[in-house]
Amino acid sequence: MTNVNYRSMKITPNRPRVISVVGARPQFVKVAPIHHECAKRGISHEIIHSGQHYDEKLSAQFFHDLDIPAPVVNLNIGSGTHAGQTGEIMAGLDKALDELRPDVVLVYGDTNTTLAAALVVSKRSEYLVHIEAGLRSFNRSMPEEVNRIVADHLAHLLLAPTKTSMTLLANEGLSTRARLVGDVMVDALRQTEERVKARPPSMPDGWVLNQPYVFATLHRAENTDDPNRLRFLIDRLNGIHPDVRLAAHPRLRARLHNFGIVPDGGLTLWEPLSYPQTVAAVRSAIAVVTDSGGLQKEAALLGTACITARHETEWVETVTTGWNVINPNLDTTIDQWVSKDRSPLRNEVFGDGHAAQRSVDVILDEYQRFHAAV
Ligand code: UD1
17, 108, 328, 346: least CB-packed within 10 angstroms? Predict the structure, then answer.
């Protein structure tokens, strides 16, 4: 990756200075195609990291693997309560934006970083864009649901990944600000899939790809923070298949330790995987069991059946196309679920891998309109 001095670029309404605010693992994946598209067109694009995710395996490793430059600012907020994280990001980001003076700020998905950045920018002069707008689980007890609703209602421009998300935005009266661009995660996934096919990444010691296994992740508060619920899920995972490999988020490890839960049976715990390792692990798995939104979609796109350990999903297309089943108590047998016939996902569902290109086109267009009107 060449080092570009973005500060020396001439800024005009059709070449605004763009900043992305990210903080958690899936956002590093989403920002990568946007960054590369801006770089290709000579548009100034820099990254502010809130520091919500700070472990090397959850943060720096992703910047390295996705070939995105180090953040210009890291607010280093670390872990904390929802209010604590949100408040600290808000105060730090406001100052950082005073110094960096971008024209356009991009926020991604539904984390506390998204919420904080949307609140800050909406009271400033920058043009606010929400990437991955219009997702809804209709479960307000999820912090992510609140975060994305607020971001959608505050942003000037809503870039929606799917037709469903466009409909949901219209239902909330937001259609004039919404544009369908496809899912930027498809861009990142397809690029990494090609690299993984050409040159498989080295996997953690002992992770054999060519034998039948189930790939699992669990990190949502609703599954990890109640000891009875977590014990129940771990018991189910122990028995669901002879080889279940769970890449454990630090939150899960901490809860297992605190509650004295020790996996046995078929279940083994692994460190979080890098993005290329995740793509390789999902491609080779016979099934995925997860509560992650991104992974449900990645499984479907890579042709691996998924079981979702939740009561609902925002990515309803993964279910309607037959690739995913919502099964909060994991009482579907893997064999039953894997043996169904499924057709590969068509490009119309989540996009054709060119969502970043369309996103940048729309951002430039709409920002010029906004700029001319103020
Ligand atoms: C966050 C997002 C979630 C997203 C997930 C992706 C919110 C509300 N949640 O959840 O939507 O799906 O990121 O992974 O924003 N921790 C570490 N090291 C780290 C980061 C976290 O050890 O680098 C541990 C800490 O104990 C922390 C806990 O994980 O308290 C939870 O981290 P947090 O950022 O609050 O939420 P996630 O569960 O990661």
Answer: 346
Tokens of 241: 């298949």
Which CATH number goes with the domain that contains 58? 3.40.50.2000
In this structure, the residue with its CA closest to atom 3 of ligand 1 is 111
Catalytic residue status for 219? yes
Which residues are CB-contacts of 157 (< 8 A; sequence separation ≥ 6)?
Answer: 127, 128, 129, 130, 177, 179, 362, 363, 366, 367
Q: Of all atoms in ligand 1, which is nearest to the CA of residue 55? A: 23
Evaluate whether residue 305 is within a structural domain: yes
The answer to whether residue 9 scores a pLDDT higher than 70 is no
**Which structural domain range is residue 86 located in?**
18-183+351-373
End-to-end CA distance of the chain: 36
Element (H, E) at 307: strand 305-308
Question: Are residues 342 and 361 both part of a single domain?
Answer: no
Single out the residue of 171, 139, 178, 152 nearest to residue 293, CA to CA: 139
- Per residue in 242-282, pLDDT tens? 999 999 999 999 999 999 999 988 999 999 999 999 999 99
For the segment 304-337, what is each residue's pLDDT rounded down to a tens digit? 999 999 999 999 999 999 999 999 999 988 888 8
- The confidence band for 1, taking pLDDT boundaries of 50, 70 and 90, is very low
Q: Is the pTM of this model over 0.90?
A: yes
Expressed in angstroms and rounded, the spacing between residue 277 Cα and the centre of ligand 1 is 20
